[in-house]
Each structure stands twice: as C-alpha cells, then as structure tokens.
Design a protein that fits this description.
Blueprint lengths: L1 E8 L3 H17 L8 H11 L3 E11 L23 H6 L3 H24 L16 H10 L2 E10 L12
Antiparallel strand pairs: 1-3, 2-3
Length: about 170
Amino acid sequence: MSILDLDMMNMGNRARRAVRGLKVKISVEDPSTSLASAADTFLRMVGKRGFHDIKSCTVGVPVASTVTAGSKTNGQGDVEEKDISLADMMKDESSVGDAGITKMVARVGRWWYLRCYELTVLPNGDTSRSIFADAALLRECEKWNTSFKLLVCYAQKPTVPRRRTASV
C-alpha cells in the first residue's frame, strides 16, 4: 500500500494555516470524513483484520524543490526549463541532476495531494485556487524542507481466515 497523508512534515506557519483551512473545508463538505492520519488509520485497520508481518516506512516527498547554485538562469533570473527525461537526470551525478529529480518528484507529489484532498473542495474544480498556487507558501515549504508524508507498507495475509459465527 502507498498512502499519502493529509498532514505534512516540517510545516511552517503558512503551510500549517493552509492545511488547517483545507481540513475545515473538507469537514464542511462532508462532516463524516475522518481528518485523522490516513496512514495510522490504515495500519490500525490492517492489524485488526488479522494481517501479520506488517512492514511500513514513512517517506518524505518534497513539497517544493530548491534551486541550486549550479542551475542555469536566463536574463530575468528564472531557471531555464529543459525537456530532460528522468533517465537522463538519474544518469547526471551532479547537483543539477538531483535538483531536477527533486523538482519532478515535488511536482508529482503536489499533483497527487491536489487530486486526493483538494479537488473535492475547490470551487468548480479550479486548480488555480490550490494551496500550492501561493508562491509564498512554496517558498516557505522550500525553506522549511516541508514534505508530504507517504506511507509505504506491506502485510502478509492472515494464515487462518477469520471465523464468522452466527449469533443465535
């Protein structure tokens, strides 16, 4: 299983406010939605259902990537974008290759977070109103090294099936 949590790690004030506001919107949209840690809830449920040998790892997926000093900029100070494949970035052993991978992973992480949590509460599905549309929030996340909590785990199925008994 791979489970992306609503909460993030190493949040600053702006990110904390944004996530809290998102939780309020989700709660207003559907009051029955649990805002507890999805990873903890799933692990607890898997354990209660009799699965064993549960192995889990929490991975921090970066929210924003940092621009390294080795990056090339154009005349206006913007980082130049090149169409480089992930395979090419992985072959590049310099800090520029690492920065490119981090940037790509952060972009995918924000896309998944938007799809999993924000899209249901955005008016008319307008993704430009995402919490990540705020450049100041992304700068803060970059400064604080904020990351999404992604739980990766597996479990062995129960060797003895649960008994179902009829009540009389």
